[in-house]
Amino acid sequence: MVFSRTRQLRTTKRLTGDRKGDHYPFSLQFYQLPPTENISLTEFETFAIERLKLLKSVENFGVSYLKGSLEYNAKLESELRKLKFVCLAPNDEIDDKVYDIRRKDHISHFILRLAYCQSEDLRRWFIQQEMDLFKFRFNLLPKEKVQEFLRFNDLEYVAISGEEKDLLQHDLMNSTFGLSTAKLEDCEFYKVPFQAALDLVRPRKVFLSKGFAFIPHKDIVTLILNDFRTRLSKALALSARSLPVVQSDERLQPLLSHLRPYNMTSNVGRTRIPMYRQSFELSSKSFPLCMRQLHKSLREHHHLRHGGRMQYGLFLKGIGLTLEQALQFWKLEFTKGKVDSEKFDKTYSYSIRHNYGKEGKRTDYTPYSCMKIILSNPPSQGDYHGCPFRHSDPELLKQKLQSFKVSSTGINQILDLVKGMHFQLACQKYFELTHNVDDCGFSLNHPNQYFAESQKLLTGGRDVKKEQAPMESSQANPPSQVTSSLSSSTNVTSTQSEEMEDLEQILSEY
Amino acid sequence: MDLSVYEPASLPDLLPLYYRRLFPFYQYYRWLNYGGVVKNYFPNREFSFTLKDDIYVRYQSFSNMSELEKEMQKMNPYKIDIGAVYSHKPSLHNSVKSGTFQAQEKELVFDIDMTDYDDVRRCCSSADICNKCWTLMTIAIRILDRALYEDFGFQHRLWVYSGRRGVHCWVCDESARKLSQAERSAVAEYLTVVKGGEETIKKVQLSDPIHPLIRKSLKIIERYFEEYALLGQDILENKQCWDKVLSLVPEAVRENLLRDFQKARSSVDRWERLKKSLGPLELKKGANSAKEIMLQYCYPRLDINVSKGVNHLLKSPFSVHPKTGRISVPIDVRKLESFDPFAVPTISMMCSELDNVSTIEEDQADANEGEPDVKRRTRDYKRTSLAPYVKTFEQFLDKLDQSRKGEMLLKSDLKKEF
């Protein structure tokens, strides 16, 4: 039955060899069935590497540009072309070339599933990139093809009746951007449990009633993506279970493990840089704005709320503060305020020890990346954490930059970037302006990277000793190692309390 | 000395009495057991106790009501928190294979804390509350309760006074208990309107069209705004406070308004002028300023992190607040306007109420000796000011039972068809 249906849709006469037109009728796929053919090991490897490259680009573009913007789309499209994951099918005909590209799309996706199914982090990363890629491709699909594609993949949503629509008219219009009464007539709405459309529920872009979301046709991609995510996530969990079988294959095992450790987030969070007594002024300059803000507010209030303690505490850990130093640092500051020493030990020291992997599930936590700071846990009343470029009023940001003596042209450049939602680029600009360089020569994605790059510049790269441990193995990296490297490089022979003074001095801003 | 006035130092003496004679174990178990429909639902539930000197014990769990009762009477916790239902008994969490011990279900909870309103209330700050600012909690409950019911379809919402400066909500529908972390955060974010920390002045930005949630919430705020904000808090009383409000309107009208404000006599008058001056801005940016100000001053501020996590702990109903001695009591939403946080019984108040009756009935005591504990406790709390709150709780439980029965009937009907 399936065969006859698709045959009506497609002309397949041009295909040669084993190629079958009904395999890949569309320019994008739901990846429901794994490939069953035999492929060579070389092909296996090239496919996988190229898809990995593609997904990394998807991630990078998503960070540098607003997803769905013209720039983002253009970049992604050229990347797809460059890596040969897309090809125009003229007259909707599937020739050998088109077929081969779609086959590669299919097979490479399933290879990466094997490489990325084994840990929660890997799975999350993979799902995110695949979803962004899917969304991009879905939006390119011509309107008339959408229904066909949905039917082909058994994704059918039932629209609400005219009466129900009339009844809810006002609420539906007030929930949907740019929908006039006239348009409402033609617009279909699909009624689904709100859990199926979280991306629309979260920003209130959909009407909710009694637990159901009413999705306008133009937002149907949200539903499809939700389905895509659910299925992919289930499939990855299943693959993880059959992993031992794959790993016992000695031909595949080295290939897969080669693909697995994705290093794109690099090791910045783990770079430990020794701090120098004389470099106190340099150090405060090396703090990105978010950390400067947290430090300042900690100084003023002798307190930071949880979000701030996490963001700042882990940053300090990342630049080399040992557990003992961290405990002393926070205690000194907090006890200047309302918290007495006993309360500090009871209430706050646990979470600091927790950050260093000494309590609870004993994970050695890594400092937050810019993405994490920008996207998750936005600051609310009483909070000073977050990204100053993302979470400040432009007016306040401007004042702050003025107080740091940033030139007014510089401030305008930064504010323009902020307006375009390029928060990391704005921060990068801030780096360039405060360090007097034209081009910082790196793409910023981590506060600790900011610190490291700044140190590199300020000390002329002369004696910046980096102790780099890759992200993955860092779990096993005992903090004691860091202590030794720190003390050996600073030649600290003093007692603990004097060290604390050093630290204080290093961290005092002005 | 008046024994009914709460003194934190007396807590260790009062707690044993409270847990022995007053704590409504029967109703409490009835709640968390959810009809015993799901196997091990109660035994796999995490409780955590805060003991004397802030000693915090996590992962407590109890197989049944009598074990819970015995343990609580033994440990006399200063504070009780409720956590998630786990895959295994929480008390055994160290003995199961790591990674397999996971939080599976929990009520969807909300925590609203008066401290988060410090920038918009003039009467008190931090942990202090008064009858003036309590209106903020009333508004919060009205708005969220409507949205949880009408928008999300949740039937069983238990509102509880936290004992000091805020309120909690426990959404107990089966579907709410099963929500994943992502789903919980989506609900919480949908409900969050006031955004931004200390670095943000304007915390509410409306976009056109205005979403039904906001429209309906504004309707509720309108009912309280004049009385609460303009008269009670007097948010436009003097220059210092109206400057704060003016920083939220478009610059174009700011100067004129400033002049207007100096001429006007009262907050109500100034608010009228503000609304009028925004009128001509129709359809342009800033036309919603008045609405945005109302939302920034009155819309509920959620501690979103509490709602997000399945495994997040929240103070239990009927736990004592160690600082105030007040009991965390359920709030009857139908009589919300008359709920007074200062009328909520403290542990010392109830214990002395208990004392008063027992001295009167001393002579009858012998006759009661043989009575079972549960029965005596029922009678005990009924003689204190805790009684009406337990009743509210029981009504909530009855409703839970009813809909559970309804569902089971439906299910068995469906089965018969085959």
TrEMBL record, chain A:
Chain segments carrying region Disordered: 463-510
- GO CC terms, sorted: alpha DNA polymerase:primase complex
Q: Which GO terms describe its biological process?
A: DNA replication initiation; DNA replication, synthesis of primer
Any one GO MF annotation of this record: metal ion binding
Where exactly are the transmembrane stretches of this chain? none
| Biased amino acid composition, Low complexity | 477-497
Q: Bound how, and how many: what does the cofactor note say?
A: Binds 1 [4Fe-4S] cluster.
Tell me yes or no: is Membrane among this UniProt entry's keywords.
no
* Essential cofactor(s): [4Fe-4S] cluster
State the superkingdom: Eukaryota
Where's the DNA primase large subunit C-terminal domain? 281-451
Q: Does the keyword Metal-binding apply?
A: yes
Coiled-coil regions listed in the entry: none
Keywords (alphabetical) are: 4Fe-4S, DNA replication, DNA-binding, Iron, Iron-sulfur, Metal-binding, Primosome
Binding-site residues for [4Fe-4S] cluster, renumbered to this chain: C290, C370, C387, C427
Q: A Pfam family in this protein?
A: DNA_primase_lrg
Q: How does it assemble?
A: Heterodimer of a catalytic subunit PRIM1 and a regulatory subunit PRIM2, also known as the DNA primase complex. Interacts via (C-terminus) with PRIM1. Component of the alpha DNA polymerase complex (also known as the alpha DNA polymerase-primase complex) consisting of four subunits: the catalytic subunit POLA1, the regulatory subunit POLA2, and the primase complex subunits PRIM1 and PRIM2 respectively. Within the complex, POLA1 directly interacts with PRIM2.
Protein family according to the UniProt entry: Belongs to the eukaryotic-type primase large subunit family.
The protein's name is: DNA primase large subunit
Automatic annotation (TrEMBL), chain B:
A GO cellular component annotation in the UniProt record: alpha DNA polymerase:primase complex
Q: Name one GO molecular function term.
A: DNA-directed RNA polymerase activity
This enzyme catalyses: ssDNA + n NTP = ssDNA/pppN(pN)n-1 hybrid + (n-1) diphosphate
Catalytic activity, EC? 2.7.7.-
In terms of Pfam families, this protein maps to:
DNA_primase_S
Question: What are the alphabetically sorted keywords of the record?
Answer: DNA replication, DNA-directed RNA polymerase, Metal-binding, Nucleotidyltransferase, Primosome, Transcription, Transferase, Zinc
Q: Which NCBIfam families match?
A: primase_sml
Query: Which protein, by its recorded name, is this?
Result: DNA primase
Please report the organism this UniProt entry assigns to the protein: Eleutherodactylus coqui (Puerto Rican coqui)
